[in-house]
Amino acid sequence: MTWSVLNIDELKKAVVIEKPFPYFVIDNIIRPEVLTEVVRGFPQIEQRGSFPIDAYPFSGKFETFIQELQREELRDLIGEKFSMDLEENPSTITLKGFTTERDGLIHVDSSTKLITVLIYLNLNWQAEGGKLRLLYNNKDLEPYAAEVAPEAGRCLIFKVTKDCWHGHAPFVGERHSIQLNYVTSEEARDRHLKRHRFSAFMKKIFSKDREKEPAY
Fold first, then answer.
1. Are 84 and 114 contacting, i.e. CB atoms less than 8 angstroms apart?
2. 57 CB contacts (<8 Å, ≥6 apart)?
3. 46, burial (CB in 10 Å: exposed 0-12, middle 13-18, buried 19+)
4. Which helix (H) or strand (E) is 186 found in, with range?
5. Is the CB of residue 88 less than 8 Å from the CB of residue 132?
6. Under 8 Å between Cβ of 155 and 81
7. Structural domains of the chain, with CATH
8. Considering the chain, what is the average pLDDT of its residues?
9. pLDDT of amino acid 215
10. What is the pLDDT of residue 209?
11. Distance of CA 56 to CAs 51, 59, 113, 128, 194, Å?
12. Which regions in the chain score pLDDT beneath 50?
């Protein structure tokens, strides 16, 4: 199996940290020689929220990367890391391009998600806000078990549990990420995608309405 974008050897070497919930971080999940091209292929998203991958056209190495994220071989490797059989579990992929003060609140992922994979695509991240923290409870951003700056090529993978608390300090602006999830069933996948597609549609409608408003 040839991987032209995904740095699969780094995934194979990663070691799972068990507390406060099972996770691991990979600093360079994207091959260095194509990283810049993948970053440049990220679609222009100027609104907060998650968008399904079919909401935008892709090309080049970014499109290849999205395709590689959907391979069964990747699913099996991630499942092996967490001693889970994900063969019967479908995946979803969503994109985030912009965060506001409403984002980053401490939360756990929904119970229909089994594994969350977060891949960041921001070159030379400088801001203190927007760095994802893995937490010990649902109230405090400090102390934290780990902090993941959303640098291009960095990847966080964790098992979704009832106490997989995470969040970040506020950041307003562009913050590009890809979220891959393995979910409990086809029904759960369809619900997630339906919700994100409807949200994306409504955001585009409101965006067009704002463009028609007169400038003052």
1. yes
2. 43
3. exposed
4. helix 186-212
5. no
6. no
7. 8-207 (2.60.120.620)
8. 90
9. 36
10. 44
11. 9, 10, 24, 30, 16
12. 205-216
